[in-house]
Specification:
This protein is mostly helical. Helix content is about 75%, strand content about 0%. The chain is globular, with a radius of gyration of 22 Å.
């Protein structure tokens, strides 16, 4: 008991509701005590650091290290490609040796290489360190996948949706902290930002150490040790899901450029749209996952999301020649609609990544799924820049049509993967 509490009083967490559960647990605001809560706390801490780093990294590289924008772009692009190679082998290591232990090591490595970033003073040293950071990040994502799957319980999609909601909240806290650093605009402040992110990896590792050992699932005797690389149906689903995941860059990359350069809407709308998107994800991601507990549920969700993306992008495309007031209102409606599609698409992606992967190979399949997302995220700015900015209003409609077509084709790839998995079990 907390020594500051009077005898007979309870914390908010401990106060039961009518069902006998603690109030915060019953409301779904925190998981019940145990591995799920520990993993959620670790993810929350980690995402505070990610929000801090993502918001201020580009300014650290240019304002503190002294690199040009072109040099930063080249280094980060190269790092994204290099990082793709780590996911599958580290994921397989997690399958064989234990996900908790592997994830712990990747967090320690991330802390070390992130802290080393404050020593960077030349372009090529920057390239080396940023590539190491991305390698460690990809390895971390791959080893974290089977950890989530192992502790998530009977509904991993709901738990993964909960993590996404809380992670968005944590990332917002990190971004707010980074805004203070940007305002100070000194080398010491930028150094503190980098070291602060490194500290969150250490804190995350300390929390992860509290998890129980997750025993690896025994592989079938004749199972291929690198089966993910030979699983064509799953690779197809991964590629198609990656195309759908480009929707995340619509609001982060294409919309700000559209608001500032192609519409008469006020510039403050860029920040407002980001806030709307974040608040909706925090509030509704878990609710959006309801009914998406099987491949069939994922198929319905991905079809709906494609249609909603098209409607949202059509609204945004129509604002090119509107006055400021109507353009602002229409863009806000488009952002709300787009976020609804994002909630469904994210939940479907969670279900497919876990549900189509063999139990004994969750790590390497998680690495493959992350590789697909990494590739599409690398090309997303160029694709969206061409369609939505260079081409203009018609390009928004074409991009929306691509999302619709992908959502309609994806069910066939999912059924193909299901048939292949059933054949493997026999």
């Amino acid at each position: 008991m907390d020594n500051n509490l009077k005898p007979g009083t309870q914390t908010v967490d401990a106060m039961p509701d009518n069902s006998g559960q603690p109030w915060l647990v019953a409301r779904g605001l925190i998981p019940e005590r145990g591995p799920r809560r520990v993993l959620a706390v670790a993810s929350f801490v980690n995402m505070i650091g990610n929000g801090l780093y993502m918001t201020g990294a580009a300014l650290f590289f240019t304002r503190s290290v002294g690199l040009s924008v072109a040099q930063v772009g080249f280094g980060m692009g190269a790092a994204s490609l290099v990082g793709l190679v780590a996911g599958i082998p580290v994921g397989r290591l997690a399958d064989l040796r234990g996900a908790r232990e592997t994830y712990f090591v990747t967090l320690v490595v991330q802390a070390l290489v992130m802290a080393a970033m404050v020593l960077v003073h030349t372009f090529w040293l920057f390239v080396v360190v940023i590539c190491l950071i991305q390698l460690a990040n990809s390895a971390s994502v791959a080893s974290r996948g089977p950890l989530i799957r192992g502790f998530a319980g009977p509904n991993p999609t709901k738990y993964r949706s909960y993590l996404r909601a809380t992670n968005n909240l944590a990332g917002s806290f990190g971004a707010l902290a980074a805004s203070v650093v940007v305002q100070l605009d000194t080398r010491a402040a930028y150094g503190a930002l980098i070291l602060g992110n490194a500290a969150t990896f250490v804190a995350c590792a300390v929390v992860i150490a509290r998890l129980p050992h997750l025993a690896p699932v025994q592989a079938p005797r004749l199972a291929d040790r690198w089966m993910a690389l030979k699983d064509k149906p799953y690779m197809t689903v991964t590629l198609l899901d990656g195309v759908m995941t480009m929707q995340g860059q619509v609001l982060l990359f294409a919309l700000p450029l559209w608001i500032v350069g192609q519409s008469d809407a006020p510039r403050w709308l860029v920040g407002m749209c980001a806030v709307i998107n974040t608040l909706m994800v925090v509030a509704f991601q878990v609710r959006a996952s309801r009914g998406i507990e099987s491949n069939t549920g994922a198929i319905r969700a991905v079809r709906r999301s494609g249609l909603v993306f098209l409607a949202a992008m059509a609204l945004i495309a129509s604002t090119g020649h509107m006055a400021a007031g109507p353009a602002t209102a229409v863009i806000v409606v488009g952002v709300v609609l787009h976020t609804v599609g994002e909630l469904w698409q994210a939940a479907a992606s969670f279900e497919l990544s876990f549900g189509l992967a063999p139990e004994h190979a969750q790590g390497q399949y998680s690495g493959l799924f992350g590789m697909g997302h990494g590739l599409t995220n690398a090309v997303a700015p160029s694709v969206l820049g061409f369609f939505c900015i260079t081409w203009g209003s018609p390009g928004w409609l074409v991009m929306g049509g691509i999302f619709v077509a992908t959502g309609l084709v994806m069910p066939y790839a999912i059924r193909w993967a299901e048939r292949t998995r059933a054949a493997d079990l026999h």
